[in-house]
């Protein structure tokens, strides 16, 4: 999870029971399967993978089996999530640290794959976060962004309730282009009424 102060507090309180929550099976597991499938199609042999908003590290644990040669790193704004992730990975094969999407503590071009699963709507400065992801991606790398993309009923609710943190297609495209990125592939998550999209995002082709 990444960002607004009240969100960080809520996820800190939630960390201990997070992996037992019903949303893991109903929401997050189908998303994680779709993310890993699309990631493998886009970058079959990544050298480094970063999960922004890694929570307790479940996705990276699955990625370890799918991409055994990759260096795996997770960041989260909620320190209790980071602690929980570290405790579930006692061997230290996956690196976890506290960090915000808007200030990623890594050199340029560090990762072939970046994951963000249902965290983008928590980012306090989405434009800056996108720019940071673009910065740490390698040339030819992919950002796998899984999120509610406002359309149809969700789009109507977004406008009525002014839930601007949930991206609309046009606005997301504009923000990506501002950082030299574009959606190059996309897959809808099955079982969630088509409301969650997993987008593979890469450097804009000239």
What would you note in describing this structure?
The longest helix has 21 residues. 43% of the residues are buried. It is built from 7 helices and 7 strands. Helix 5 links the parallel strand 4 and strand 5. A 7-stranded mixed β-sheet has the order 3-2-1-4-5-7-6, sandwiched between helices. The protein has 206 residues and is an alpha/beta fold.
Summarize this entry quickly.
With 206 residues, the protein is α/β, with parallel strands linked by helices.
Keywords:
206 residues; alpha/beta; 7-stranded mixed beta sheet; 39% helix; 7 helices
What sort of overall outline do the alpha carbons produce when their principal axes are compared? globular
Quick one: biggest sheet?
A: 7 strands, mixed
Residues in helix, %: 25-40%
The overall pLDDT, averaged over residues, is: 85
Question: Kindly, what is the distance between the CA atoms of the first and last residues, rounded to a whole number of angstroms?
Answer: 33 Å
Q: How many runs of DSSP E, i.e. beta strands? A: 7
Order of helices and strands: HHEHEHEEHEHHEE
Which strand order spans the largest sheet, edge to edge or round the barrel? 3-2-1-4-5-7-6
| Estimated share of beta-strand residues | 15-25%
Number of helical elements: 7
Which parts are unreliable, with pLDDT below 50 for 5 consecutive residues or more? Answer: 155-163
Would you tell me the structural class of the helices and strands?
alpha/beta
Radius of gyration: 16 Å
């Amino acid at each position: 999870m990444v960002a607004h102060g009240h969100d960080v507090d809520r996820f800190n309180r939630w960390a201990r029971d997070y992996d037992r929550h019903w949303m893991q099976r109903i929401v997050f597991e189908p998303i994680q399967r779709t993310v890993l499938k699309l990631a493998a199609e886009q970058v079959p042999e990544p050298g480094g993978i970063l999960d922004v908003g890694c929570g307790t590290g479940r996705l990276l644990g699955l990625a370890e089996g799918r991409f055994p040669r990759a260096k795996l790193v997770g960041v989260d704004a909620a320190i209790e999530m980071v602690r929980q992730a570290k405790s579930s990975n006692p061997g230290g094969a996956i690196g976890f640290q506290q960090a915000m999407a808007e200030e990623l503590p890594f050199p340029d071009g560090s990762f072939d794959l970046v994951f963000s699963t249902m965290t983008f709507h928590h980012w306090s400065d989405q434009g800056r976060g996108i720019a940071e992801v673009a910065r740490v991606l390698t040339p030819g790398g992919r950002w796998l962004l899984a999120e509610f993309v406002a359309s149809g009923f969700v789009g109507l609710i977004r406008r009525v309730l002014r839930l601007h943190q949930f991206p609309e297609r046009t606005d997301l495209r504009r923000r990506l282009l501002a950082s030299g990125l574009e959606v190059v592939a996309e897959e809808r998550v099955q079982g969630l009424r088509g409301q969650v999209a997993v987008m593979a995002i890469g450097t804009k082709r000239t």
